[in-house]
Amino acid sequence: MVNRLLKRLDISYYVVYPGFTDISAYCRISVEAVSEVHQIPQLTLPKWLLSIELLTKNTVWLRTSRAPSISTLDITQIDDVRYREQAAQMMNTLAGTDRPAVVVGNARSFRVDMPLTQQERLSETARYYNPCLTTETLHEVYDTHNDILDQAATAAGLVFFNLQDILPGGTENFGDATHFSKAGTDQAASLIAERLLRLWFSEYLREN
């Protein structure tokens, strides 16, 4: 996206918030090829319609039995080499644009200092979509991915700060395990804007 589109535009600076979607690869189970089935074509909704996805996300509590209480994945055996390579490639690409860039570490609603019952409730969607992980192992994987982003950004000479450290968790700022609520979106945007002002625009503001 940067090379093919954004570099052609008059971009002043980049803000990168990668999200946690990449961890879903750790829980994928290889499925045997299913034999081709010939049947009458059926009308289906277009893939860009988000109604089904929203219904799924908003009814996760009905299917919490799929969210494990015991991790089925030994996190010491996780192969994060591909994610490290992708993170390094992304940071090096941004560094090559000659534009300022800040990489923001991902935040989540559930925190280790919360009661376990509260963590379990807030992590429901993350455990549902990553069924091989528990709340405890999600903490470890999420922190590892933020560390990888930090290391890749620093190596490429980019600025990194972790939103997890400064945005409070809980239901006020999050609609589920990792997605912001309206209030959380405003708060995250404000915190990022404040950091941008301190990094790049403080001198401009003083002069004007």
Task: From the structure above, extract its key features.
208 residues, mainly alpha, Rossmann fold, 6 helices, 40% helix, globular
Structural overview:
- There is one protein chain.
- With 208 residues, this protein is mainly alpha-helical.
- It has one domain (12-19, 65-207): SGNH hydrolase (Rossmann fold), CATH 3.40.50.1110.
- Helix content is 40%, strand content 6%.
- It is built from six helices and three strands, in the order βααβαααβα.
- The protein has helices spanning 51-58, 81-95, 116-122, 124-129, 135-155, 182-207, and strands at residues 14-16, 101-105, 159-162.
- Strands 1-2-3 form a three-stranded parallel β-sheet, with helices on one face.
- Helix 2 (81-95) packs parallel to helix 5 (135-155).
- The protein is globular, with a radius of gyration of 20 Å.
